[in-house]
Amino acid sequence: MAYFANLKKNKNPYERFKLKGNPFSIAPLFRNFKDAKECEREESLFMLPQKLEMDLDILLATEDQRILIYGFYGIGKTSFADFFLYLAHNYHNRFCTRVVLTEDNLERAIHELLLCLSSDIISEVRNRELIHPIVAIRKWIADKRYQDFLLTSLAKLMGPYTETTETVQTNQKKDEINVSPGGIGVNLGYEEEIQVRKAIQSYVEVLPLRKVAEYTKDFQQIIQELGYRDIIFFIDEADHLPKIESFIKLLTRAREILFSKGCTFIIAGSVELARFTESLGTIFDRLISLKPLDKADFYTTLEHRIQSQNPALKLQDVFADEALDFIFQRTKGIRKEFLRLCENALGLAILQNKQKVTVDECLQVTNTGEQELVLNLKEIQIKILRYLALREVCSPSDKAFIKDMEVTRTHIRNNLEYLTSQGYVQKEKRGRQSFYAISSQYRSYFAREAQQ
Hints:
By secondary structure, the protein is of the alpha/beta class. It folds into 4 domains: 50-158 and 208-289, 3-Layer(aba) Sandwich (Rossmann fold); 161-202, no CATH class; 294-372, Orthogonal Bundle (Helicase, Ruva Protein, domain 3); 377-451, Winged helix-like DNA-binding domain superfamily/Winged helix DNA-binding domain (Arc Repressor Mutant, subunit A), CATH 1.10.10. The chain is 49% helix and 18% strand. The strands form 3 sheets. Strands 2-5-6-1-7 form a 5-stranded parallel beta sheet, sandwiched between helices. Strands 3-4 form a two-stranded antiparallel sheet. Strands 8-9 form a two-stranded antiparallel ribbon. The longest helix is centred in the first third of the chain and has 19 residues, at 109-127. It is flat and about 60 Å long.
């Protein structure tokens, strides 16, 4: 009972380190980029490498751009893009909207852009204070019948739906215990169970790209009346798509939209996506590569995190020097990787009543994580991933590949297809041939394993 009493007191276990909580969350910063006050608080957690400051200045000054921000998984692409949106929306009069792409909505991604934009504009008008200029804007929207346009856009882009109800009747086996003069017996009986299942079927109107371009012009008029210079679309999660080729085809088909005047498109993607786009050439005006942090920026980032909760603390008050060296070498300066390792190692140090985070806690965390990573993989699949981690791309027809794997080409291809379906590997078609590359979030781990 004493244990539960302590839980009810809500005691902070991080007090021993003079912290309010664990400061190393991997959650992206500036997600609510329209909330200037919340983002200002998050600035203390954010460290912008000096080499990106000029890129950010150029992004804030230029319009009608198509920009790809790329780098390894976990490098900080989303936080960098959201930081730009926060500055652009709140201090540079640019109307920003974020669109998250997944495998499910990729086929109608252009419609997803307009749907998010419609919703954000309606929210913007609704949330503004009822002062005279805003009344004028609402009157202008009503006079131009843009209110109908926005609502109709939402209806068309979301699509009407029908709801169906299905009743399913099943018989479940049930053991019945009978008591009789001859003793106790068990009879097998049946119990009827009725389930009601509901399903929603939506019917989305797929608009021609030329019609979408017309919609975009109407949206530009609305946002300019609201006082904004232009529209910025941020397309996020593009590096998590299992089939990069499908996304590249989308970009190629949507050139008329991507080159709309008054619109800037920012896409966060992987190194693999950048390699595809460089081969295509003319889609992007600017490619911004995010690199792993060097050791000085790594130290500064962690110290920013700690001092956001306690300005008097130094990094070495929480971590032993050997632990910091281990974390940097292990994660190669990948932001999400070293934050995750710090977060878990600090929690483990508290559980083990340590005064500082040492190499021991870091080793325990990494060993556990790596065992889970390969838990569901076959030996040949681990071997393939280690081979790919040391190369850019590889074909299953490569003789050196077949020789190293010591299995048939068909067996390699089947395992590559499985690894692709699970997100470990990316597939690229070149004519009739298929080439495979390990996904960037797994490269550092399997490359390290291959070199040991």
